[in-house]
Specification:
mainly beta, Methylamine Dehydrogenase, Chain H, five-stranded antiparallel sheet, 7% helix, globular, disordered N terminus
Length: 633
């Protein structure tokens, strides 16, 4: 080989080495940079801390719904009781001092957990409030501040555990254990990430974590151990007394010492809350009240050794106040055989609203998710309530004043009322309906009734009951929404939209043959000569009379519209969303906006608009507000 060739080969190798080395160095630097970014992201979550200042829209009213007690805590000598919709403060004599409402003084989310303690940025001890969707709230006795993670996954809190070191441990619904120290919000430890947490107790060095489906975990010295042989993998409650831990499950309480299960006490009981102190254990059950559990022997079920406190009650929390043992039930606080605090009577029967509709006489019909039907008097009185095997889970309510009919779609049939609010008829599968579950109902001008079901659509008229489903050309059997325009019916299904002429399928639209953005149709409302169609995932789209679909630029991204939670007026179109409040379309400007001010929850499940007033139902209560306050031109 010539000298020139040797030199050329050597140079080529050197250049290759430089290129390879440079490439390797670039890859190494990129990997290092990505690792640093990942570690930084894992080490600290993006969040905001802001004071909460209640600003309620003019004219907004909270329609009275029953309080539900879920947790309680002593703070500054007063008793604070939390429920999904409010935080109530009582003095030492049991008198109500103040009430703080979700959507007003507090964020629009259920209140789920309370604890008292100090964080690094606390000037004095604070009351910490965990919410089911809006993160952490701190109350210093004068005002509230909110610690809100940017990522919604970290805002659904299930448990709180303040530490003596100035840190607040936070259990979340699906994202494990977090810690807030006053400066940073971050995962407590990678080994406790992505867990469905139900309960916390312990400290920085030894932390017990109860989970929804992964049993009981002990975090210690950076490692995690699973405690085996418990009665159930779902941990409902935890309590410590010295070095002994008690873990409540749906099948009894596990007694644990030195990280090992010693025995099961109170076998067979649903131990949803526990208190352990001075060698004694108290247990609150799902529906059998509170007991002191004997620890000297091994009693069988039913042999607890003492009468229950609040028999037949669901006990949510057991507290020790001034040496006494108190039991917090869903609607009252008990000390021995006496209820020392009871919730007030309210207008509504329940908080979880599923359907709203006002009849021609001005009576508001309210369907509850699992508590039947209530018809409020036109003057605002409590009116009548119906709850039975058919009227328990209401999906939709429709009225036809010209024929004197009101139809209520339920999970177990279609219930028809006459003008006097008397039940005229119950129609289910045995009477000819294609399925018992009725997801929507439409009343046609000719007196016919159309029922949507998970098996197709049924038509009820003077000639009887007939049905159509996928075999007859319906785009999908599972029907969620209906809208009728004379003989024409729009049928929204899990797989797209079908348009019917009478009982004949005229056309069907899916994402594969049209500009429809999502096949799952949840709500339909007519606006002039067009229809606004709600979907579960792509927000609201518009369908004109020529079958052309239009998406709205200001509703880009994922947006879930709740089933049949839509209404239209001359001013606006309203759509209830799963987690963004009320979506409002101004017909004057042609733009969408979102309304959350004053709502007790961002999950809007029902909307009714009548005579210039909006009724907005959520899974956490009902509000009413003048329409101009919401739908600005």
């Amino acid at each position: 080989m010539s000298r020139r060739r040797v030199w050329f080969a050597t140079a080529l190798v050197a250049v290759g080495a430089m290129i390879f080395g440079g490439f390797s160095l670039w890859r190494a630097q990129r990997a290092l940079r990505e690792t640093r970014n990942r570690v930084a992201a894992e080490a600290s979550l993006r969040f905001d801390v802001r004071p909460l200042e209640p600003v309620l829209p003019l004219g907004l009213e909270f329609v009275g719904a029953p309080a539900v007690f879920t947790d309680a805590e002593i703070f500054r000598g007063h008793l604070f009781i939390a429920g999904p919709a409010e935080l109530a403060e009582y003095d030492a004599a049991g008198a109500l001092v103040a009430r703080y409402r979700a959507g007003a003084e507090l964020p629009a989310a259920p209140l789920v957990a309370l604890a008292a303690g100090l964080a690094g940025d606390s000037r004095t001890p604070e009351l910490w409030i965990g919410t089911g969707g809006e993160g952490l709230v701190a109350f210093d006795g004068r005002g509230f501040r909110q610690i809100r993670a940017e990522d919604p996954r970290f805002r659904k809190i299930t448990a709180l555990q303040p530490l003596d070191t100035g840190r607040i441990l936070i259990g979340t619904e699906k994202s494990g254990v977090l810690v807030y120290d006053g400066r940073k919000l971050k995962p407590f430890h990678p080994s406790l990430a992505d867990l469905p947490v139900t309960a916390l107790t312990g400290n920085d060095a030894s932390l017990w974590v109860g989970t929804l489906d992964r049993g009981l975990l002990l975090w210690k010295a950076g490692g995690v151990e699973t405690i085996d042989a418990l009665p159930d993998r779902q941990i409902l409650s935890l309590a410590m007394d010295g070095e002994t831990l008690y873990a409540g499950t749906g099948m009894g309480v596990g007694e644990i010492r030195d990280g090992k299960l010693v025995r099961v006490v109170a076998p067979g009981y649903f131990a949803q809350t526990l208190l352990a102190a001075d060698g004694k254990l108290w247990m609150g059950t799902l529906e059998e009240g509170m007991f002191q559990v004997p620890l000297e022997a091994h009693p069988s079920r039913g042999q607890t050794g003492n009468p229950p406190v609040c028999p037949a009650c669901s006990i949510r929390k057991i507290l020790r106040i001034d040496g006494g043992i108190y039991a917090l039930a869903e609607d009252s606080l008990w000390h021995g055989a006496q209820a020392v605090i009871s919730r007030e009577d309210t207008l509504l029967a329940d908080r979880n609203i599923a359907a709203l509709s006002m009849d021609a006489a001005g009576r508001l019909w309210i369907g509850y998710f699992d508590r039947g039907l209530q018809i409020l008097d036109a003057g605002g009185g409590r009116g009548e309530r119906f709850e039975d095997d058919h009227l328990f889970c209401v999906n939709r309510i429709a009225h036809d004043a010209s024929h004197g009919i009101s139809a209520v779609a339920t999970a177990n049939g279609l219930v028809l009322f006459d003008a006097s609010r008397a039940r005229r008829r119950v129609i289910g599968r045995a009477e000819g309906l294609i399925a018992n579950q009725v997801t929507d109902v439409a009343l046609r001008q000719d007196g016919a009734v159309i029922a949507a079901t998970p098996a197709g659509v049924s038509f009820i008229d003077a000639s009887g009951i007939s049905s159509i489903y996928a075999f007859h050309g319906l785009v999908n059997n599972h029907v969620y929404a209906l809208s009728s325009d004379g003989p024409r019916t729009l049928v929204g299904t899990l797989g797209g939209l079908s348009i019917l002429d009478g009982t004949v399928v005229e056309a069907s639209f899916t994402t594969s043959n049209s500009a429809l953005k999502h096949n799952w149709i949840t709500a339909i409302t007519r606006v002039g000569k067009e229809w606004f169609v709600g979907t579960y995932g792509a927000g609201v789209l518009r369908l004109d009379s020529l079958g052309r679909w239009e998406a709205f630029d200001d509703l880009r991204g994922t947006l879930e519209i709740n089933a049949n939670a839509m209404a239209a007026t001359d001013r606006a179109v309203y759509a209830g969303t799963l987690d963004r409040g009320l979506a409002v379309y101004s017909r004057a400007s042609g733009r969408w906006s979102f309304w959350t001010a004053g709502l007790p929850s961002r999950n809007v499940t029902a909307v009714e608009a009548r005579s210039g007033v909006l009724y907005i139902g959520t899974d956490n209560g009902l509000v009413k507000i003048p329409e101009p306050a919401v739908a600005n031109p």
